[in-house]
Amino acid sequence: MTSKLLWVCFILTTSTFSTSFSLQPDQPKVLLVAFDGFRWDYLYKVPTPHFHYVMKYGVHVKQVTNIFITKTYPNFYTMVTGLFAESHGIVSNDMFDPILNKSFSLDHMDIYDSEFWEAATPVWITNQRAGHSSGAAMWPGTDVNIHESLPTHYMPYNESVSFEDRVAKIIEWFTAKEPINLGLLYWEDPDDMGHHLGPDSPLMGPVISDIDNKLGYLIKMLKRAKLWSTLNLIITSDHGMTQCSEERIIELDQYLNKDDYMLIDQSPVAAILPKEGKFDEIYEALVHAHPNLTVFKKEEIPERWHYRYNNRIQPIIAVADEGWYIFQNKSDNFLLGNHGYDNALPEMHPIFLARGPAFRRNFTKDSMNSTDLYSLLCHLLNITAMPHNGSFQNVQDLLNAATPYVKSTTLLHCNNKQKEYKRENSYDYFIGVSLGSIIVIVFFVIFFKHLIRSQIPDLRDMQAEIVQPLLHA
Ligand SMILES: [Zn+2]
């Protein structure tokens, strides 16, 4: 009976010992959060204490160059594939593929045709192929069947689902019996209100404060679920926003006969598919039409935009200068804020913050490309990246050098803050190993004491046997 008890003690002790070692995060967790249309400088427009809390205890990149065109779907697919639009194939929110003879439209939520998405493999699929689980709360594209695969858990897109409900799902999946290691969380604002009000409107202040409160809610719930210390949280966006004006409008009907072409995408990048035999006529009519409109034949689109080699990029594109709006005619919808312009414009740039065990603390970096995020995600998840247009070297200085699951053998740049963080991690490790060792030593002392007792006759009994005759005598 006593020896059975000892074996139970031994099993408990060894499991405690292994647990003390597993204080190190052997299953890296990543939560990628995007607030649509959060321009980089909204952080300073009004007080944003929760964003600044993440920056203080994590990393912040001041300038993120996203991809052309600076629209929602192309940029969201870049974040999870590391590819430029011409490579991943989501070249705009509104597209026409002449080979497939099919259209794609975000405005009509006509986005579920797998064929539009399958030039690339998003990170949630690669993560699942590596044996892990992913969970997505409304992240664009995560409710589309891509390569016959969906995220392990996902929410079918429904903009009326509250932020709180999306957070609840993410937390449920991270804390399930078979937890996810990758979560993707999407929120529609400040994009919606940015379009409606224009980014220069003083009414944008309360909109940004509301987003900051939402981030505060997310942090509170992650702490409550005891995920805060083990989870790597990345907060980013797809693009910025610029102020438009009804005084800055380019009306295509003034220059072109609308029966001569199809307008696939409108503003600020007009994607024009001329009818047969009309290419030259349309190009000539448009190329010098307006001083704030730059017109390109597909093969002349600037190399730096990486926006040429795809069937869904139309034969002619006309790009408006910042703040200018392209209409087919004046009956079209006008918005006070818009994006989609040249990705070199600061107003088009999104935010990037991150915090967690893998990231350095209170570290600011000048710039990165949104194509680099994918390789960072793959590195954090410890999965092999698919071919992409980003660079892990561009972003590896965001990482804490002591991160235990850093796969790269390249030595990271080390400064005092890193050393400090290294020391903190070493301290946790020391405590874990020490506790485990003490428990094992205590076990062996008890075990050997029992062994000695059971194998060698008890001295007191022997003494009793020896002394008894004398007493009887
Ligand atoms: Zn967007």
UniProtKB/TrEMBL annotation:
Signal sequence annotation: 1-20
Gene Ontology molecular function: hydrolase activity; metal ion binding
UniProt-annotated location(s): Membrane
Family in the record: Belongs to the nucleotide pyrophosphatase/phosphodiesterase family.
CC annotations in GO: membrane
Organism: Chrysochloris asiatica
Cofactors, names only: Zn(2+)
Annotated keywords: Glycoprotein, Hydrolase, Membrane, Metal-binding, Signal, Transmembrane, Transmembrane helix, Zinc
Primary localization: membrane
Sequence intervals crossing the membrane: 429-452
CDD domains for the chain: Enpp (cd16018)
Domain of life: Eukaryota
Protein name: Ectonucleotide pyrophosphatase/phosphodiesterase family member 5
Gene name in the database record: ENPP5
Membrane topology classification: Single-pass membrane protein
